[in-house]
Structures are given as C-alpha cells and as structure tokens.
C-alpha cells in the first residue's frame, strides 16, 4: 500500500516523454508532487494517460540526479564540484580557446527533443550568434529527420498532416514501421477504439506487433523483411495504378499532373508487381493486393508511421513513397486521412521547428536565404554565417580528423543513442571540451570535461509541440533543484562566451519566436492559457491554429510526386551474419531509459531481451531464457533470448532501454542518403550461445 498525502494545489502541465503530449495535473503538496492525474481537458489525451506519464515525476527527486556543476581538465581526472560561475567560465574559456586555435567552426552543439521549444531556440541562437557558425543539430537527426525531408519535398511542410481527432473519421488505418501500442499508447487506445467500431487495419512491420495482436481487431499484417519498405510501398502503388484505383480527379486538381504521369509509369513497371516484390520482401503477393485495394477503396485512409520508416538508408525515400500513395488515392487534405509521423520524443516536432538543423533557421527557412537571415540578424544584432553547418555524424568525423574540438550537448545521451558506439567514443575522446548539460551522469558524460546539471519538465516554464503540431504549455511546479532551468543555463553560457541574451521569462522567448517564424505569429502564452493549446500554423489566416493541413491545396502549391527507386541497403546478410536485427520499444520504458528507469516504471522492466524465431533458436541450440552473444560487423553484446514466432525466421528483435544491453554497439554507420538518419532498423547479425555478460 502506498500512502499518499492530500494535495494542496495542482498545476496543469505536459508529459515529457512521447510525442502524444498528454496533459496532466501535477497535484502538489508544497513543492512535492503527490501524483500526476491525466487532465480531462487535454486535447491530445482527453483525460487518459499511459503508465509512463503517471509516474513521470519520480526521476526529478531521484538520488542519482546531479545538482552541482562539475569540471575536469582530462576525462581521466576525477570530477570536481564547482560553482555555476566557475563551470560556465571554464566551459567558455575552453570553447574560446578552441576557436582561437582551430577556427570559428571547431565547436558546435546538439539540441534536445526533450527540452522545451524555448530552450531549443536559445541553443541554436547561442550557436549561430554566439559561436558564429551553424554547427547545430538535433537528436531528431537520429529519428525523424527523413520525415522533415520527405514531407517538405512532397507537400511543402515538415510535419504530420492531421490532428489526433481525425482518427474518428478514418475508415482504413495503415500503420507502417510503428508500434503505437507500446510507443504511443494513449493514441493507440483511440486507434483501437476506431478499429473496434469497424475501421480496417493494415500493418506493415517485420514483427507481429501488439497492434496486430489486439483483441477484437482483425489486422491485415504484411511481415516484410527489414529494409524493404520502399519495395512494398512501390508494389502497393503498382497495384493502385495498374488496377485503375487512382483518384484521378484529386491528382489532376491538386498535384503536378506531368510528375504524376512519370511516377505512374515508373510504378506500373512489371518489376514492381506483387510477385516480383514478394521475392525481395517476403510479403505474400495476395496480401499486397488486398492491402492496396483496401487502402485505395475503403473510404478515408490514414497512414501512421514511426521509426521503422525513417531509420533506414532509404528513410527519406520511404516517407516520399508514403506521401505518393496518399496523393494518388486522394487521401490528404480532409479529416480522417493523411500522413502522420508518430514522433518518439515529446518535442521532436518542436526541436525541428525551432531551427535545430544546420541548414535551417526556425520555421524551416534555409540559412542561405538573405532576406530571412537579415531578419534574424536585425533581431539578434549579429552578422550570421550563411553556410550550413555540420550534422551530428559530420561532427564526429571532423572530431576524428582533428577539426572539430568542442561540443555542447543538451539533454541527450549521444553515446547511448547514436549508432556505432565505437565511432562515437573515438570522436568524443578526440575532442578537447565536451559539455554535457543533463540530469544524470549519462554514458556521454564519461567523455565530458564539463557537466552542467539539467532541470526536469517540472522545474521550468515553456512549451512542447506534439506529433499533431499541437503547442502546449509546460508549467513550473517546483523550484529547479539544480538552481537554474535549462533556458537560464544557456543564457549564462552565452554570456560567459561574450554574447548577451536578455529574457526574464520563457514567454518572452516565445514572443521573439512568434515575430521571426511565420507559422508561429499567432502564438503567445496568453493564447495558450486561453485556448489550452494551438496547432501550428497559427497566424493571421488561422488565429486558433490548424488541425488539418493541406485543405484545398498543398503548402508548396501542387503536390509533388517523386519517383522512389528501391535500393537495397548495403548492410547485407551472409554466412557470417545470417540474421537481420531490428529494434523497438516496450510500453513501460522510454528511449534509453535514463528517466523511466529512475521511476516506479522500473518494476515492469528489468532487461532488454532478444526475440528469436523457434526455428533459428533450435538451429543454434538456444532455449528460452538462455544468454546469447549477439554480434554484428560493428560490435557485440549479450542478451537473454526470448523464443517467439512474433518474428519471422531470419529476423531477430530487441529493445534498447537498458544501458547494459548497449544495442548501439551493434548498429552500423549506414544512414539515410538525404539526412544521415542512422539505419538502426537493419543490422546483419549472428547469434551464439553465451554464459552471460
Ligand atoms: Fe501520454 Fe506519451 Fe506521456 Fe504516455 S508517455 S502519458 S502516451 S505523452
């Protein structure tokens, strides 16, 4: 029995875990959270929550949280606790010294999709205006950067097209590369409700996910081999075009007709037939036909996708192929349809919106555009560099080559999250100053020279933007235990570097964002407090926001069909590495577990396991619960085996929540051709019995 006291007051805020963005009432006694209660007026969750959000306050008071700044000259030295002033001056001196020695471009930073819009905006401002270069990237690089590329190319906007309410009008739900039952549970409940009401479900996934196994839901499951998304989507397009299922009126009115004709001729080629595709992908040709017909003719068709789409060498191509399908069938621009990326972290959408990419200022405007850059220069009172900066993998390569020596990482454990851990270690070890700004001494901090304690979502004001572009308030419920909210630390670091930024409250940062970002001109804290939330674009044309985009016309004008040639990944199986590893999540844990493992959620998850088909297990003498050695061309780790036919023969699957597993020791350097998003979802591996770690 857990004894809980009576709350004295409550504060409405937003969950800091996944991209659903559930609103909660934090019920408080003084500065102590008594419980988190899902808020009935939350427009993303309508009074519901999952097991992660309910216990989300636990890590704020966890004993392992670091509350004092620390510095050290070399990573071999012990950490030394110092004052904030001393730590910030030490960091600034190091970064200034690096720039004097190696040049202006030798430092950069990484923004966090866990932090608020305002904090992310300030980090990119510090880098562009304070460091004087555009070496800013975001942890979205490793998850949804292909979404930004693919949707802006085809529709003109780097965001999902619908609100969550739209699912109420959906007749066919097509889920590809996502498992919302585990990763976006509150939205999954709404999906399941609609499916129980009769909507049809198509799931394209190598694994039989919880969505496929949901009771009372009959799913058409297309279990493809990892890495073959583009081939399967092109086969669906082939069937739609060759069977005359295209919505020609929509395409003629809304899209570039000549580009459509080129695309239709491409997909109609017999090499994309269901039979030819089955050989490449392992998907039954009749299942492909049924899926294409149901999606094209079943009424309102909505596509939802996740990292199983983006984290591939053809991640951007896959997003484009999805957009092509939606346009060809007229499934865009009204409630119930659309293309909907399910964002992993709470503020992936926001961190991308706020100019965290090295080539884009806030609002996705290219840094080389003179008029836009001049607007920022006038507001920030600096001259900005017009050359795109380095992406995260380029920063690592440049560090190993000796030209990138200083990195500021806010709210992201890059050592645990980025692929090919050995390469990341080599890069971090080569740098002269790594500043980690986080809650806990994470794996990256092992290679850091400065540790700046971070604040949790309960200790700050700000906003998060969820997967449906909904901007919601984050409200401070307690004084930061470390002394400063993250936005204040960035201002102090900028000052120590010689670049002054003056804000008394995050609402003033949002006011500046609204002036500089056309999709945010109508956003203010006053409006958010009045309406509860708004979905961008929120401006003169849409003062209360935009739930569904591309109604009556695409943001880019005509919708653009782009040919998507399937190119198999270079990550191949062979006699030495005969199985393909793919990865996912479980319900009770969030990402690398840094937060959820420090809450009550820990009781639901002790370790990551390797799912292996009975046939593959028997061939290798592996029994359920045995330790196995999992090795790839990049590295190896040890896990317990779980024998299950949820995965097909030839495919193995694990989660990545526990640092002991080190799943990214295994993953390779291959990445998306357009955005460098790592190919986490396909790794050739071998498995052998082991005695344990
Ligand atoms: Fe909602 Fe996601 Fe938080 Fe769960 S983790 S409560 S679904 S925002």
Describe the model.
The protein has 693 residues and is of the alpha/beta class. The chain folds into four domains: 9-61, N-terminal domain of TfIIb; 70-141 and 346-458 and 482-518, Rossmann fold, CATH 3.40.50; 145-341, Dimethylsulfoxide Reductase, domain 2; 579-689, Barwin-like endoglucanases. It is 31% helix and 17% strand. Helix 3 packs across helix 21 and helix 8 packs parallel to helix 14 (315-328). The mean pLDDT is 92. The structure holds iron/sulfur cluster. The site of iron/sulfur cluster has 14 residues, from helix 1 and helix 6.
- Round the mean pLDDT to the nearest integer and report it: 92
CATH class of the largest domain: Alpha Beta
Small molecules bound? iron/sulfur cluster
Please outline the major beta sheet.
7 strands, mixed
Strand percentage, roughly? 15-25%
End-to-end CA span: 36 Å
Strand order of the largest sheet: 5-4-17-16-15-6-7
Shape: globular
CATH topology of the largest domain: Rossmann fold
Helix content: 25-40%
By CATH, the architecture of the largest domain is named 3-Layer(aba) Sandwich
Structural class: alpha/beta
Tally of domains: 4
Q: What are the low-pLDDT stretches, counting only 5+ consecutive residues below 50? A: none
Number of strands: 26
Rg over alpha carbons: 24 Å
Helix count, DSSP H or I runs of 4 or more residues = 23
